[in-house]
Backbone:
C-alpha cells in the first residue's frame, strides 16, 4: 500500500498531529518567541489563511503589464489577453478579465499585489519547488519542517504534549485536505490537523454516518491498522472543538457552486465565525499546470486558466464578505502562493511551460493596498524567464512581523536567516512597522 493511501485510509475524517506529519511526536525543547508575541497573539486572535495554487500559476496572464504590452503580445501571441479586456488596476498594470472580484477588492483597499516573487536558482520541478515554498528553504537546502510550522512551534512550545489546554484549546492549524502540508510541519510533528475534504467536515459536524473506515483485512497488517485507528481516535482531542465552533455560526455570504476553493473557504469562515482559535488555515486550488489549452483559441479570455482565476476570485471575494458579515474581518488575512510562475514565451500548444517569478496576493482589511514592485521586464530575461524582484521569504517574514508581531531574533529562528520586509500590512498596533 502506498504511503499516501495508507494515511488516507488511516484517517478519512481527521488526521492526528503525530500521524499526518509522518514523524514521531517529539516535542520542542525551546521557545525563542518573546512573551510580547504571545501576548499580541492572545490579544488579537489574528488568523492567516494560506491559499495554495498548485501547478504553477501563469503570473503574466494573471497580472498583466500594460506598460509592456508590445513585448507581452509579441511573446504570447496565441494566449495574450486583449488590451481592451484587461481589468485596469493602474495605467500600467491590470488583471485578467476573469478576476472581477479581486479587482473590486483592490479598488476597495483590501488587496495587495507583490510582483516578481520567486527565489534564487529556481527549481522547475513541481515537487521540489513546492517543498521550497512550504519549507522556506534555499534551493539547495532540504528541510523536513515548514515555515508556518516552525513559527507555531516557537509560539506554542512542547506541542503536542500538554495540548489542548486553557490558553490553546483549539487546533493550532487546520489543513483542508487529506494530509497536513509541509508548511505546517514542525520539528518532529505537524503543528496542525487535516480535515480530509468538505464532505467529511459536514459528516463530523452533523454527527451523521460512521467514521468512514473500511474494515481492515484479517491479516497482521489489518490488526496493526485497527490498533492504530483505535489509538488515534482515543487520543485525538480536537473534534469536539471543531464541532462546537461550527455549531455556533452559519455562513452569511453566498458562495459560488462547483468551486472547490469556495467549498474549503466556506468551512474556514464558519469555524472562524464560531470562535475557533486556530491561527493558520491552509486551502488549495489545483490545476494551474497549463502546458496546453490554457486559453480557448476563439477567445483567449476564456479557457482553463480563466476558469481557475475566476474560481480564485469568486471564492476569495465570497470568503472576505462572509468574514465581514460574521464580524471577524479585523483578524483575518489571506495570502496566495504557487510553486513557480510560467515561462515568458507561450508554447505551440496554446500553453506555458514551467518558469520562475510570479505575483503573490494578500487580502484583508489591513493590507497596504496597491502594488509592491514594478512590472516584470520582459525585455531583460534570464534564459527566457523573469528575473526575481522579491524572495518569497521576504513575504513570509513580512506577514510574520507585520501581522503576528514577530520580531528579531525570532524571525531569524523561524526563517533561518534574515530577510528584508516589504510594506504589505498596515496594522497600527504592530511594532514591526517601525522597522520598514
Residues:
Amino acid at each position: 500500500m502506498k504511503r499516501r493511501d495508507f494515511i488516507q485510509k488511516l484517517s478519512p475524517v481527521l488526521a492526528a498531529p503525530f500521524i499526518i506529519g509522518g514523524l514521531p511526536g517529539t516535542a520542542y525543547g525551546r521557545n525563542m518567541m518573546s512573551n510580547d508575541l504571545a501576548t499580541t497573539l492572545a490579544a488579537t486572535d489574528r488568523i492567516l489563511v494560506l491559499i495554495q495554487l498548485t501547478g504553477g500559476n501563469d503570473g503574466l496572464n494573471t497580472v498583466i503589464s500594460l506598460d509592456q504590452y508590445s513585448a507581452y503580445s509579441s511573446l504570447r501571441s496565441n494566449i495574450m489577453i486583449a488590451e481592451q479586456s484587461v481589468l485596469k488596476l493602474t495605467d500600467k498594470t491590470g488583471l485578467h478579465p476573469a478576476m472581477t472580484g479581486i479587482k473590486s477588492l483592490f479598488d476597495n483597499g483590501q488587496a495587495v499585489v507583490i510582483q516578481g516573487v520567486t527565489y534564487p536558482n529556481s527549481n522547475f520541478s513541481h515537487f521540489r519547488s513546492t517543498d521550497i515554498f512550504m519549507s522556506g528553504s534555499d534551493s539547495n537546502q532540504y528541510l523536513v519542517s515548514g515555515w508556518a510550522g516552525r513559527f507555531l512551534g516557537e509560539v506554542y512550545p512542547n506541542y503536542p504534549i500538554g495540548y489542548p489546554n486553557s490558553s490553546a484549546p483549539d487546533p493550532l492549524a487546520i489543513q483542508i485536505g487529506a494530509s497536513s502540508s509541509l508548511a505546517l510541519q514542525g520539528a518532529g510533528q505537524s503543528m496542525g490537523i487535516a480535515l480530509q475534504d468538505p464532505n467529511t467536515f459536514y459528516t463530523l459536524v452533523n454527527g451523521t454516518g460512521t467514521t468512514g473506515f473500511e474494515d481492515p483485512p484479517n491479516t497482521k497488517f489489518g490488526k496493526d491498522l485497527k490498533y492504530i485507528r483505535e489509538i488515534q481516535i482515543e487520543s485525538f482531542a480536537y473534534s469536539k472543538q471543531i464541532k462546537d465552533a461550527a455549531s455556533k455560526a452559519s455562513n452569511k455570504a453566498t458562495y459560488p457552486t462547483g468551486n472547490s476553493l469556495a467549498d474549503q473557504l466556506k468551512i474556514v469562515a464558519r469555524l472562524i465565525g464560531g470562535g475557533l482559535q486556530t491561527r493558520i488555515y491552509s486551502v488549495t486550488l489545483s490545476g494551474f499546470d497549463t502546458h496546453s489549452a490554457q486559453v480557448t483559441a476563439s477567445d483567449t479570455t476564456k479557457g482553463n486558466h480563466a476558469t481557475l482565476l475566476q474560481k480564485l476570485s469568486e471564492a476569495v471575494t465570497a470568503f472576505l464578505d462572509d468574514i465581514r458579515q460574521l464580524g471577524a474581518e479585523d483578524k483575518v488575512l489571506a495570502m496566495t502562493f504557487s510553486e513557480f510562475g510560467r515561462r515568458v514565451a507561450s508554447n505551440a500548444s496554446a500553453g506555458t511551460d514551467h518558469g520562475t517569478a510570479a505575483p503573490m496576493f494578500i487580502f484583508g482589511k489591513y493590507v497596504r493596498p496597491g502594488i509592491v514592485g514594478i512590472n516584470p521586464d520582459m525585455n531583460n530575461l534570464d534564459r527566457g524567464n523573469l528575473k526575481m524582484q522579491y524572495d518569497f521569504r521576504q513575504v513570509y517574514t513580512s506577514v510574520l512581523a507585520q501581522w503576528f508581531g514577530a520580531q528579531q531574533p525570532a524571525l531569524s529562528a523561524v526563517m533561518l536567516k534574515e530577510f528584508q520586509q516589504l510594506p504589505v500590512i498596515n496594522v497600527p498596533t504592530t511594532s514591526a512597522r517601525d522597522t520598514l
About this structure: DSSP finds 14 helices and 13 strands in the chain. The radius of gyration is 21 Å. Confidence is low (pLDDT under 50) at residues 1-34, 230-235, 430-436.
